[in-house]
Write a structure and sequence with these properties.
- The chain is an alpha+beta fold.
- The chain has a single domain (15-31, 53-244), classed as 3-Layer(aba) Sandwich (Glutaredoxin).
- The chain has eleven helices and ten strands.
- The chain has a six-stranded mixed beta sheet with strand order 4-5-7-6-9-10, sandwiched between helices. A two-stranded antiparallel ribbon has the order 1-2. It has a two-stranded parallel ribbon with strand order 3-8.
- The radius of gyration is 18 Å and the shape is globular.
């Protein structure tokens, strides 16, 4: 496991980016269940438009009383997480729309880049959380390609910065600040979010709590009704687990 110190805690033990098969998650398999009943969204709305921030620091889409609750611990810089978002979010929404399934994404920090990306990604609140998240995953390679190359003075410059300044500088360098501006988040608002030390500490604590509770060794890690899904990192694997749970 990598240890990434971002200056807000002495050190944070974090997982690596890898598929479910690589992460070594273990849990009892989800038993087959009878199909569960769906639920109609309130008049004039759809469950896929119902998004709230949870007490655990994640963002949940769907029926809050859905009998099947899926949680993903994911990193915005993880290629396997991007693959799941690109291939799985649209078909997953079909399950969410029935009211049978809710989906919660919890930012899991693999590296300091993730911190700034998560701060600006959450900045505008629930209404834009999932559109911005999906677009970040779709543009992941372009964003990461903006990073410093060998010999770039940026590498030494950030070493002398305070931790929160370093987060801001990295969000600028990799293009996450401009990214959310182009999607309707004013620059002043995005910079305020990046400078928010309390929000940064909350991200770190949420990642620590998730790792402690579920022994997360790789991202994405999926939790279905409180149980870690074993060897599950692709949409096909997640869909099979949803069906086994009665979706």
């Amino acid at each position: 496991m990598k240890r990434i110190a971002i200056g807000l805690v002495s050190a944070l033990a974090l997982a690596s980016c890898g598929s479910g098969e690589e992460s070594g998650n273990s849990a009892a398999p989800v038993p087959a269940a009878s199909p569960v009943a769906g639920s109609t969204a309130p008049a004039g709305s759809q469950w896929t438009d119902t998004v709230v921030k949870t007490a655990e620091g994640g963002f949940r889409m769907g029926n809050p009383d859905a009998p099947i609750k899926l949680i993903e611990y994911g990193s915005r810089t993880c290629g396997h997480c991007a693959n799941f978002a690109i291939t799985g979010m649209e078909p997953l929404k079909a399950y969410i729309a029935t009211g049978k399934v809710s989906f919660e994404f919890r930012d899991f920090l693999l590296n300091p880049i993730d911190v700034g990306a998560a701060l600006v990604g959450q900045c505008a609140g629930p209404a834009t959380f999932f559109p911005i998240l999906d677009q970040m995953f779709a543009e992941q390679q372009t964003l990461l390609g903006n990073g410093p190359k060998d010999g770039d003075p940026f590498i030494t410059q950030i070493e002398s910065m305070a931790p929160q300044q370093r987060i801001v500088a990295m969000a600028e360098k990799f293009g996450y600040l401009a990214f959310v501006q182009q999607r309707g988040v004013p620059e002043a608002q995005a910079r305020q979010c990046l400078a928010d030390q309390a929000a940064t500490e909350a991200l770190v604590k949420a990642a620590e709590a998730g790792q402690k509770q579920f022994n997360i060794a790789g991202t994405p890690t999926f939790i279905l009704n409180g149980k870690v899904l074993e060897n599950t990192g692709t949409w096909q694997q997640v869909e099979a687990a949803l069906k086994a749970a009665g979706a």
